[in-house]
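We modelled the chain as a single entity of 267 amino acids. Its sequence is:
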Amino acid sequence: MESGNKKSSGFVTKKQKELLVEFMNKHPDLLSRKFSNSFTWKDSRMLWEKAAAILNAVPGSVKNWEQWRKTWKDLQSRAKTKQGAFRKDLKRTGGGSRVPSPDLDPTEQAVLDTIPIVSIEGHNVLESDVVLFIDDENPSEATIKPELPLLLEFPFPTIALPSSSQDEYPVKSIPVPSTSQEKSTREIPTRISRKSAGKVLEHILGNAQKLGDIQERHYQTIEGIEERKAVALERLAAAKEQENTIRNRQASAMEKIAEILLSFISS
């Protein structure tokens, strides 16, 4: 098992990045970063150790498994940041598709392609920007529910954003959440400007990003708990082994004492 104190050395080469992308695509469980009964934190660590061995075997940077895991997170974060054209296209058209950014090289585009696109209220959004729903009975198993309206958590109405080029377009009337029963029965106007729709969508994406940060912190918390649990189990196993060794030595000592006593009595 690799030491967690191993220092990183050298720069990550293009070849290492390509190998890392290839490895992640071959292991969808590791790519999804979701633990379950069939894929535990221990399984995740074993795969990262395997990845580290592969990456360290080629010229370039030398890191332990935790450092390579962070490298992967950094690659994804950098690719998403440089994908500005995608966000601009969303705000401009009220939907659109993911347009490759001219700033992305082939490897960065390959990294970005590992982040799934899910549909929320008819809009394409990166899965990493979607709220993570946690099972209270089993917090280590987290799933994304892309079809559940994200707006249920926020005080603004759900709207449909068509791809029409008109300045104004009809929108289905939906009750606006309110603190009073009287106001809650009001409905939004049946027409809304594209500028207003863009602001609402921008608000949605902003809150989705915040929720994505919460998702990341939750994942790191679960990961830390699992890691501490694994260390505790290893120490417990070592303590039991030491206890068995002491008991065996005590048994051997008692046998020798018994032999000496029998020999003394016989003589």
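As a brief sanity check on the tokenised model: The chain has two domains: 1-114, 116-235. Confidence is low (pLDDT under 50) at residues 119-123, 128-174, 178-190.
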